[in-house]
Amino acid sequence: MTERPPTPDPRRDRSDDKSRVYAPDFLTELFRNPLDQGYADAARRKALGGEPRGWRATGVRLVSALTLVAVGFLLVVAYRQTMSDEPSRTQARAGLVDQIEQRQSTTDDLQRRADELRDEVTRQRDAVLDDRDAARLRDQEAAAGLARVRGDGVEVRLDDAPDAVDAVTGAGKPDLGRVLDRDLQEIANALWSAGAEAISINDQRLTATSTIRAAGSAILVDFRPVNRPYVVRAIGPGDMEDDFKDSDTARLFRALVEDEGMSFSVRGVDDLTLPAASDPQLRYATPSPTATPTPRTTEGGK
Questions:
Q1: Is residue 298 part of a domain?
Q2: One pLDDT digit (tens) per residue for the chain, 302 residues
Q3: Residue 138 has what pLDDT?
Q4: What's the chain look like in SS3?
Q5: What pLDDT, on the 0 to 100 scale, is given for residue 53?
Q6: Residue 219 maps to a domain
Q7: Which parts pass through the membrane (predicted)?
Q8: Closest C-alpha to 231, from 222, 221, 240
Q9: What is the rounded CA–CA span in Å between residue 109 and residue 19?
Q10: CA neighbours within 13 Å on the CB side: how many for 235?
Q11: Residue 77 lies in a domain
Q12: How many other C-beta atoms lie within 10 A of the C-beta of residue 198?
């Protein structure tokens, strides 16, 4: 008869079993000992050895002090150099601004004088021509933009959106609400398509050779700067205002008003007067002199 093995006692605490060992998982060990073992060893060696003493401690403090003095000296020198250069830069900028204003004033005076002389030439010419020829010539000048015109039309006002600032970061947002040169180009083209007979931008008359372009942050119309707000006036038929408002260009700018805060308005105006444009600098092509043909010889001298 075989002897039965003893029945294990269910009341026995499993924690008393010394033969089973549980290794901690990686995350538990990481939270228990977040410091790398190398750092822990270095801290332990420093605690055992203490702070550097004698000439070593003095040398460390001396090097640190010299480094701080050198950095401070460099900062002071850079600051003094910047402040010493600032008056000269400010003075140079002020001088350039004065020159620009003087040249602009001189240009405006010359333009007024040119307009007076043009009016005098027109009066002298009309006195020589008969009424029919003078009227036909005035109509052609008005169509070409070389004479003042008067009539009912449309006024379009355009201006930049206020400077946008991000409410969270305080940084400036992309300047999508700023008026660009191509915006004025699109408005002018849309007015031409709506039937405009004459257009001006900030009292700069547009002609067939006019240019609207950007130079840095400035917009030039026929190489003359125009400032905000931008006012585009056009003379044309009575339905020009409705046709322009229904154009894709007007819808685009109304969307920019809602999304970016740009200023855009269109209204009909009675009795507009648009100035004449400057005399265009035309270039003429001339045929080259007729060259004398060189006789060609064929094989055999014939």
A1: no
A2: 445 555 544 444 444 444 444 455 555 666 666 666 666 776 777 666 655 555 666 777 787 888 888 888 888 888 777 777 667 777 777 888 888 888 888 888 887 888 788 888 888 888 888 888 888 888 888 888 888 899 999 999 999 988 755 555 555 555 678 899 999 999 999 999 999 999 999 999 998 889 999 988 889 998 888 988 999 999 999 999 999 999 999 999 999 999 888 999 999 999 999 988 877 766 666 776 665 555 555 454 44
A3: 81
A4: CCCCCCCCCCCCCHHHCCCCCCCCCHHHHHHHCCCCHHHHHHHHHHHHHCCCCCHHHHHHHHHHHHHHHHHHHHHHHHHHHHHHHHHHHHHHHHHHHHHHHHHHHHHHHHHHHHHHHHHHHHHHHHHHCCHHHHHHHHHHHHHHCCCCEEEEEEEEEEECCCCCECCCCCCECCCCCCCCHHHHHHHHHHHHHCCCCEEEECCEECCCCCCEEEECCEEEECCEEECCCEEEEEECCCCHHHHHHCCHHHHHHHHHHHHHCCEEEEEEEEEEEECCCCCCCCCCCCCCCCCCCCCCCCCCCC
A5: 55
A6: yes
A7: 59-79
A8: 221
A9: 107
A10: 20
A11: no
A12: 26
Residue 74, token pair as written in the block: 């460099």
Bond prior to 229 in cis (omega within 30° of 0): yes
Q: Show the domain range for 158.
A: 151-274
CATH number for 210: 3.30.70.1880
Tell me if the pTM is above 0.70.
no
Nearest in space to 232 (alpha carbons), one of 281, 188, 194: 188
Q: Tell me which residue has tokens 């020589």.
A: 128
- Establish if 131 belongs to a structural domain: no
How many Å apart are CA 235 and CA 196, to the nearest integer? 6
- Report pLDDT digits (tens) over 5-29: 555 444 444 444 444 444 555 556 6
C-alpha–C-alpha distance, residues 66 and 60, integer Å: 10
Place of tokens 């009292």: 203
